[in-house]
TrEMBL record:
Its EC number is 3.1.-.-. Its cofactor is Mg(2+). This is CRISPR-associated endoribonuclease Cas2. It is an enzyme of class 3 (hydrolase). HAMAP family: Cas2. Mg(2+) binds at D37. InterPro entries: CRISPR_associated_Cas2, Virulence_VapD/CRISPR_Cas2. It comes from Marivibrio halodurans. Belongs to the CRISPR-associated endoribonuclease Cas2 protein family. Homodimer, forms a heterotetramer with a Cas1 homodimer. Keywords: Antiviral defense, Endonuclease, Hydrolase, Magnesium, Metal-binding, Nuclease.
Length: 130
């Protein structure tokens, strides 16, 4: 299937750099992982934490665990831009860390549910045209 995609892209875009950029390498594509610790002692703090979680979902992130969200980005630049947007939405008393790992590294993730190994999430099937 990947070779079919290459042919279509070459035909539509005439090959060259644009076509190569559209076939994102696993070493160039990035996963952005947002880990956070937000206070939830008061009603206002819980509301702010909920707003932050909803913001992450609106930005295309998916919940991995309660305070860990992740998103696939075809390029490092897109991952950086997403991180900047997340940084502007952090509640004032929040602690947030954002990690960037390549798609190849993410593919080596091991998930366990109880004592059993679970599947690793796969990158979304999408073709991004800019």
């Amino acid at each position: 299937m990947r070779e079919d995609l290459r042919r279509v892209i070459r035909k539509q875009f005439g090959g060259g750099t644009v076509a190569a950029d559209l076939l994102t390498s696993g070493y160039r594509a990035m996963w952005t992982i947002v880990c956070f610790d937000l206070p939830v002692g008061s009603k206002a703090e819980r509301r702010n934490a909920t707003r932050f979680r909803k913001f992450l979902l609106d930005q295309g992130f998916t919940m991995k665990q309660w305070s860990v969200y992740h998103r696939y980005h075809p390029t490092r630049d897109q991952a950086e831009a997403a991180a900047e947007r997340v940084g502007t939405a952090v509640p004032s008393l929040g602690s947030v860390s954002i990690y960037f790992i390549t798609d190849k590294q993410y593919g080596q993730t091991r998930n366990y549910e109880g004592a059993y190994r679970a599947e690793t999430e796969e990158k979304p099937d999408q073709l991004t045209l800019l």
